[in-house]
Amino acid sequence: MPNPLPAAGLALSSLTLASLTLANLGLVAAPTATAMAQATGPGSYSGVRAINLARNTAIKLNGGLSRYQPAACMFNTSENGGSCLVKLNQRGYLYRFRGGAPGWQQLGRPATTETELLVSPDGRSVTQVLYNGAPRR
User: Can you tell me whether residue 126 is helix, strand or coil?
Assistant: First the structure.
């Protein structure tokens, strides 16, 4: 089904369009498991938002890019963070990753910081910073 709002510059997912169409008919439908997996799975809009928000939050918490660089996995948007994504469930995206001075990974230096945080399922807010300190293990 074509996007009914292209002139306004709004992009709607097929899940949203299906929901709007059903709502207009007075019907209520719960998203299928497949639709939810596509909406929150690897490479989804919410997944890309979640990893970007998690990475940028860690950068801010640790003094900015001139002082801190997160692990390379936090730049892997096509897989929502790859090995940095610990869990994805109804509570959201749980990330755990290390970081250090700019270039730490490329130069083979040890990480100086570990960050663990939970991002909402829609990827729009950090709901909890669980840890931000020295590497735990």
Answer: strand
Q: Which domain holds residue 103?
A: 43-137
Q: Are the beta carbons of 112 and 100 closer than 8 angstroms?
A: yes
Q: Tell me: do 18 and 80 sit in the same domain.
A: no
* pLDDT score, position 89: 94
Query: In this structure, is residue 6 part of a structural domain?
Result: no
Bridge partners of residue 133, in order along the sequence: 114
The dihedral built from the CA positions of residue 35, 80, 53 and 11, taken in this order, carries a sign that is negative
Secondary structure, 3-state, 57-108: HHHHHCCCCCCCEECHHHHCHHHCCHHHEEEEECCEEEEEEEEECCCCCCCC
* Partners of 31 in beta bridges: none
3-state helix, strand, coil in the chain (%, to 5): 35, 25, 40
Same-domain status, 116 and 131: yes
Q: pLDDT band for 43, please (50, 70, 90 cuts).
A: low
Q: Are residues 69 and 110 in the same domain?
A: yes
- As for how many domains the chain has, the answer is 2
